[in-house]
Structures
1.
Amino acid sequence: MDLQDAHGWLADVLNEVSVQFQRVPGSAILLRYVKSSYQNDPIRSAVELFLFLFAVRYLLAPRSTSKKSYVKLSDEEIDELVDEWVPEPLVAPQTAFEEATNEKRPVIVGPTGPKSKLLGGRTVTNVASYNFYNLVGHETLKEKAIQTLRTYGVGPCGPPGFYGTQDVHMKIEADVAAHLGTAACIIYAQAFSTISSVIPAFAKRGDIIVADKAVNFAIRKGMQISRSSIRWYEHNDMDDLQNVLASVVKEQAKKPLTRRFIITEGLFENIGDMVDLVKVTELKQRYKFRLILDETWSFGVLGRTGAGVTEHQGVNVREVDMLVGSLAGPICAGGGFCAGSDEIVEHQRLSASAYTFSAALPAMLATTASEVLAMLESNGEMVTQVRENIKTMWSQLDPRSEWVYCTSAIENPIMVLVLKPEVVASRKLGFSDQEQLLQEMVDEALANGVMMTRLKSVPRAMHVTAKEIGWELQPALKVCITIGLTRKETERTGTVIRHAITKVMKARR
């Protein structure tokens, strides 16, 4: 076939293709579009053709083109690897000190009270429980709890949003809100999970939290769950708090608007001192932050009627956006609460995990909490008597002991006693040395009929340093004051504790 024949054959083929293409429905429209497009913008036609061919190539390509690079193991090799694998422990192993402490831990037989009976048969003075108002064995509360138990049963067996809410739950919410002076309140079934659920219900990734370095473990878990950006300020240092707030505002000036929170405690669980709420609310207003206040240990203790640090320092409760507290400590019931505006409370009913996914508070605990709040409002002598016993215990320990001093506020019924700095420095005592000494003091006091305890926290995670935590818990003794002891009994208890401290320290010279 010469060139002329080839040219004629190609013309016939193209003509046949053109005829067949024109028979396709819509071919005329497509042809006009290509001609006009080419005349107006030929580059566009080339790009469209390239994209069309690329799409066809992509659709026809195999789903996976990567070659398998793993090594196939035999059953014997797999079994050998499984046998050699050692999982990482969930918690750090117990130290020798922790094992010895657990072996000597006293066990109470029967109800907890100012005078508690131990497993060996001895009766000791109990200053290791939060029975500040001696309500554990209160006959009226017991009768009310039994009556509620017979009426409502042990528990609702369902979350509040799904057939778990009962009339007693609505009553305790109204009682707490009225006691604090807030618009609304929401009740949680567990005190610890209250603050750790409230924080992530409002703070999310990208938000900013400014927190005191000494906040308790439950607050730290809540901040961790929220995945917010966390900025720390020195414990109860209002100047440092102001500097951190000003720094955050300056850094965020040209960035998208985010939610910003200040988180602190009323009475600090790990130290015992009190927040300067007047100054905190002033800074909160100046720098446009929201305030989350944890009153786990101040609600039921501070103020004329036990309404907390807001009542004690004369701060308008509306200045606190989220006021979180416990019904399980001084109130001797169970559960926790978050009080605030109607919007704050209603948001949590669907957004707070501990409220949405946990069974509701048992009815008898809700009734007990309501009864205790009524007692605090009608009988101011309860709070006054606790404070008198606190002063009595202070007079026996803080100014009279040459070894320890109290870091708690004078109104706090939990006395946190730490070794004096000069004692630690002169004897070159490390963290474990201090814990050992304090445990010996606890044992010595128990041998003389007084049961107290050490300040304890959740053990530090493995491979985590104090710098990463942000604050180091200082070893301390913890003494809880109760009106179940008379003034003379409180003095005698303080004397036993002071002598136990002195005996241990002199024996370890």
2.
Amino acid sequence: MPTPTEIFLSIDEKALLRKIDFRVIPVLFIIYVAAFLDRVNISNALTMDMPSELHLVGQQTNIVLTIFFVPYILFEIPSNILLKRLSPHVWLSGCILAFGIITLCQGFVKSYSGLLATRFFLGVAEAGVFPGSIYILSFWYKREECQRRFTLFWSSVFTATAFGGLLASAISKMHGIRGLSNWRWIFILEGMVTVLIGIMAFFLVPDFPKKARWLTNTERDFVITRVGTNEERGGAITSGGTFAFFMDIKNILGGISYFAVDEFAFCSGVIVPTYGKWIQE
């Protein structure tokens, strides 16, 4: 009878990685494209009649843009804790469905306070998508393999930024249809698409390797062994582990690097689309 080592040696590791890539990366990519579009589509709406219809004055526009990030920052860690308690396909699909519905609701707001409320809850719903996706990747790949996958996943931001403006330009021609302004159609249509993605995500988002039905038992054991983690729903977060994390300079530098990249991405997605209108004014 062959030993586990002999069985693992019979596995084509490169072919298995390609199989994992095909099953894990595309769905997370599509999810984050939808998340980022729903996050920044307000910038395109602000170039239309939204400010005048909702009577936005003074710093209200900036407050609406900023309020999103308050719950987004506060709920990132609690969201990952919940992801550990639940299956990733349940939690992530729930988050996607929630922010799709909230985006849809933005198309029907009648006042500044209504817009503020939807932006706040959009931040709550989207808080778990990015950290949850990275957390899932850490269970499927070794640390040295994650960077390339993370780069591909992160490129979804620039895909969303590139096509968001084109979509908004096309949707802007829908002004007056069903008695609704064009900026409302941006939220309604993109929200509807996100709801559909959320429903599909329930069936497509990969769980932890041990629960992957699309792998054989041997392949599941091999992935768990090679990555060296099988935490799943266990593994309590301790103060000692948290302290050790922040004592590692690589984690600090990584956080600073991510902050710099993220700042540029959000600036290009949220602020830049409004420059043209401000210049014309």
